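Running this now, will post back.
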Amino acid sequence: MIKSSTRKKPDPGNIPGLLVLSGSNDRAIYAICRVARRLKIEFYIIAAGPGDKIFQGRYKDRICYSRKNMVLDLENFTEWVMAARERSDSKDAEFVIVPSSEFLNLFLLNLERVGELESLGVRLPLVNADLYGRLSNKSSATLWAESIGVYVPGRRARFSPKNLPLVAKPLMNIHQNGLLRYPQLICNREDLDKFLMRDDCDSYFAQEMIRGNSWY
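Update: finished.
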């Protein structure tokens, strides 16, 4: 293990500007901005509209664009990059985009796959799309963890009253319609009956519920 005292600090001169999409995961956004400012790394914030909390904080001076809508597509993303580039006073400025939400990450990984990020001069500090999917989707991540001896909550063969309480986990985090799926807590028979009435209940698997405190 490398001792913290021996780690080299990043050289700000070798780090392109950071492109930060605000509006989700506020704690992470503020942490990135705080570190970037301390290390004197340029960063440019894309706010999630006028109601974004970032307008109320100390980093509002780094906002270069306020989103007109929450549509995440290539046209909008290109406009945000151009806004940051204009703010940077360099038409050739490169950016490292900060991964701040799973929905954003999957969108960016798709752009990277087809070469759009490179053409825009944007770097994405993530693993490739196949590995990201394997580690982020609940089902494949569970199987992978089990394969290397990491304890995970046990799977249940089916959604049955005798297995209560349990958690319904999505096989894939994002549905074909583009909407994010989230785990569903099923504590009693009423919860179970309600869940089984969903049109997409076949897209979930059953897992034992572990009760206790959640620590981050």
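Confidence is low (pLDDT under 50) at residues 1-8. More later if anyone needs it.
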